[in-house]
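Project outcomes to date are best conveyed with an example. Our students and postdoctoral researchers have been running inverse folding experiments weekly, and each run begins with a structure described purely in tokens. The record below, which covers 191 residues, was selected by the lab manager from last quarter's runs and is presented without edits.
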């Protein structure tokens, strides 16, 4: 079983929430704060991630801490995922560093969730990035592109336009944004 997802950048949660209610998804959670720390093996950067690369995450959410392993498959939003609750996130960070992992990025977001049929729908406001909708499905389907096309149809039904689709994870988007800023600052210091 793997998690297949699709996401899109949106301007306004209210219109999406109205559409969700129209299709029968009216149990949308209150906002949940999630704080993620992403780790890669020593020597790896985001540009090195390919199918089978281990990406580890420590997530703090509602007083729980969760260690997640994600292994991208056909693309970045198609991953084998395994999770375990941990008691001591600081100690886990130390263990990961001893195992040869290094922190690459942190993500802070406010998430609202709802379930619709066999999908999990998330409305996310991500620091530094803005507002997004994400639709996830657990699948045994080998062809994840087929599953993502199915998920994309739901986005279209919710009034999300094709050009709003995002094919990268929040971690990659923040990493790129930070590194673009660092490149600009380095160039400016040379002038």
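After processing, the design step wrote out the following sequence:
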């Amino acid at each position: 079983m793997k998690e297949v997802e699709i996401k899109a950048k949106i301007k306004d949660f209210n219109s999406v929430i109205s559409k969700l209610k129209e299709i029968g998804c009216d149990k949308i959670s209150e906002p949940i704060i999630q704080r993620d720390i992403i780790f890669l093996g020593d020597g790896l950067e985001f540009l090195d991630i390919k199918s089978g690369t281990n990406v580890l995450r420590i997530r703090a959410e509602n007083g729980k801490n969760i260690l997640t392993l994600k292994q991208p498959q056909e693309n970045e939003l198609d991953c084998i995922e395994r999770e375990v609750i941990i008691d001591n996130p600081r100690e886990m960070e130390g263990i990961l560093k001893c195992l040869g992992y290094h922190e690459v990025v942190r993500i802070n977001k406010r998430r609202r969730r709802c379930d619709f049929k066999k999908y999990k729908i998330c409305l996310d406001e991500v620091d530094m990035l803005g507002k997004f909708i994400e639709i996830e499905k657990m699948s045994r389907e080998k062809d994840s592109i087929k599953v993502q096309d199915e998920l994309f149809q739901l986005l279209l039904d919710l009034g999300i336009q094709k050009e709003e689709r995002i094919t990268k994870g929040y971690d990659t988007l923040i990493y790129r944004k930070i590194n673009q800023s660092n490149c600009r600052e380095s160039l400016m210091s040379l002038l």
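The mean pLDDT is 90. The CA atoms of residues 79 and 99 lie 22 Å apart. The training component of this project remains on track.
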